Amino acid sequence: MGIPPFVLASASVARRRLLQIAGIEPLVCPSDFDESQVQTDDPAQLVQILAQRKAETVAPQFPSSLIMGCDSVLAVNREIHGKPANSEEARQRWQKMQGHFGDLYTGHALIDLCQNHTLVRCQVTRVYFAQLSSETISAYVATGEPLKCAGAFALEGRGGLFVDKIEGCHSNVIGLSLPLLRQMLADLGYSVTDFWYSS
Question: 32, 34, 41, 71: which is the annotated catalytic residue?
Fold first, then answer.
């Protein structure tokens, strides 16, 4: 079986960087899928549906390829949070998050057009946030970083300073679980190392 082109249906720089670090150079094609079409109170179900819809939206443009869609949300006290709409929302979220923990859910969808097969999985990582002053929260929000991220923080950026610890997959918090990707590729009959040489 040949190694198909690997397409990332996401505009996320962090996800692309994770794949590159792992030796996979993806073709990047953001899906622009309207996430408001999907409504559910189950965070695991939500991210899996969105990940699959994003991959399906892009798939027709790339015949005989492997399409990956992802979506992440943070659940704190049973509330689901994606990217904050504005600075005030980001500030309010951090007031609730600081000193507590949240569960970061990332949905992963892989559509293998060569084999006409789709896998959809979810990875969950618990994130413990530091206690922060209002001044620190305001300073972080002012950087603009929280507005670009599910859960209003970037573990690989300034937000990493305000995470005390995580339980589970580290890369999942950044936007894509590398161990889960390896497992999903294996389930489709590929070795992740095959993609090191296909770009």
Answer: 71
Count CB neighbours of 92 within 10 A: 14
Prediction pTM value: 0.93
Task: Report d(CA 116, CA 196) in Å as an integer.
Answer: 23
| 35 has a pLDDT exceeding 80 | no
User: SS3 sequence, the chain?
Assistant: CCCCCEEECCCCHHHHHHHHHCCCCCEECCCCCCHHHCCCCCHHHHHHHHHHHHHHHHHHHCCCCEEEEEEEEEEECCEEECCCCCHHHHHHHHHHHCCCEEEEEEEEEEEECCCCEEEEEEEEEEEEECCCCHHHHHHHHHCCHHHHCHHHCCCCCHHHHHEEEEECCHHHHHCCCHHHHHHHHHHCCCCHHHHHCCC
Q: Which amino acid is at 156?
A: E
pLDDT at 186 over 70: yes
Q: Do 6 and 23 meet the contact criterion of CB atoms below 8 Å apart?
A: no
Active site annotation includes 71: yes
What does the pLDDT look like over 87-97, one tens digit per residue?
A: 999 999 999 99
pLDDT at 199 over 70: no
Distance of CA 35 to CAs 21, 43, 72, 127, Å?
28, 13, 12, 24
